[in-house]
Amino acid sequence: MTIHHHGAVDGVTGSCHELVLGPDASLLIDCGLFQGEDAAPRGGPDQLAIGFDVRRVKALVVTHVHIDHVGRIPWLLAAGFEGPILCSEPSARLLPLVLEDAFKLSLSRQTEAVARYLQVIEQRLVALPYDQWHHVHDEARIRLRRAGHILGSAYVECDVAGHRTVFSGDLGAPHAPLLDPPVPPEGCDTLVIESTYGDRRHEGRARRRERLAAVLRRALRDQGTVLIPAFSIGRTQELLYELEDIIEEGGDGEAVDGLPWRELPVILDSPLATRFTRVYRGLARFWPVEARARRAAGRRPLAFEQRLTVDDHVAHQRMVRHLAESRRPAIVIAASGMCTGGRIVNYLKAMLGDPRHNVLFVGYQAAGTPGRAIQAHGPKGGYVDLDGERITIRAGIETLGGYSAHADRDGLIHFVTGQSRWPSRILIVHGDPDAKQALADALRQRYRAAGRAVSVECPS
Length: 460
Fold this sequence. Notes:
about 30% helix, about 450 residues, six-stranded mixed β-sheet, RNA endonuclease activity, hydrolase activity, 2 domains, globular, Metallo-beta-lactamase, Chain A, about 20% strand, seven-stranded mixed β-sheet, alpha/beta, Rossmann fold
């Protein structure tokens, strides 16, 4: 099978892969935005451009709704794509919210224009149940399987004239409270697999809730606010779920002197995250068994009593001032996850210079982001530049591992070797060069040990 790669071959963003179905037909898997260092070489309009003929594309399949997998969909439509957008049922609920935000940031803030774009998107959306085959063109059919990355994520099995190709999308890791881990496919001929963490192993995921509680106890003793920068979708909902469990278990016991866990405010200050969380609550039938059981027992894992939501900008400014000046402990979850923008920046500007407050990182901080600077220089009493203002870091800085939404090297290898029929061709994408090479080497070694033949490639 011929596969053209239009992104996520030189880095981890811009995912877009084209499976050729015939002389004048193809299937597109994702159409994501280039970000960070991946966007820099392209610059300006080039990072959004659709550099291939869309007339042959019969359908777009979305593996999940992160912006690096869906962010170029508006430009795909503008380039003339007229086919359906196929995705899982949860993704069909979440995708319009993601693209509405993208439209407002990059295309237009005009309400009517955004509404027209979204209407087109919703008309094209086709929600597919997991684990059922769907005909797409002539002899081609696809099936979505749970990928365990975020709610609605899927890997894609494509059957074309007796040849099975699997696109992994982004694969999740075990011990995520709102997701079941991915189960490998029965087998395939060609596998296109991500490699974000192809060169490392995750540690401590099984006990991350206990470690989160311990970090919070230490930080709250300072009688200030614990700031948690978090992505609006996926990470925020997992944090809310685990915080509810910590508070429920703590009950009337003291989080800090004089403040029971039941009275500890958890402030969600991210309008987009609030909307995503509302959708997550409405999709509880896609949660794992334990999470559904907790809800059936009368608990509200994503909307518990102590959770406060900040909506408009005036209320946000008032909350920042109140928490910066008061001595009442609180937890704030706000975007963006790498502190590159969003409401978390205002909290950081107000609180980084005060040792009573703490910043807790639970996600990867890319090089060149304010989050990375705070993480690296904060413990040394360094500084960070935010909105052109240099701020000396006196707040406590903590980093908690175990929250990655990506499979590690062992998980990626299991996705291959857990199949009853191992693929004979593997294309490694969506990773930095070192990660791709490490995964390629590990897979070749595993095949040699099993006495099997394989072609492992890292497209460029």
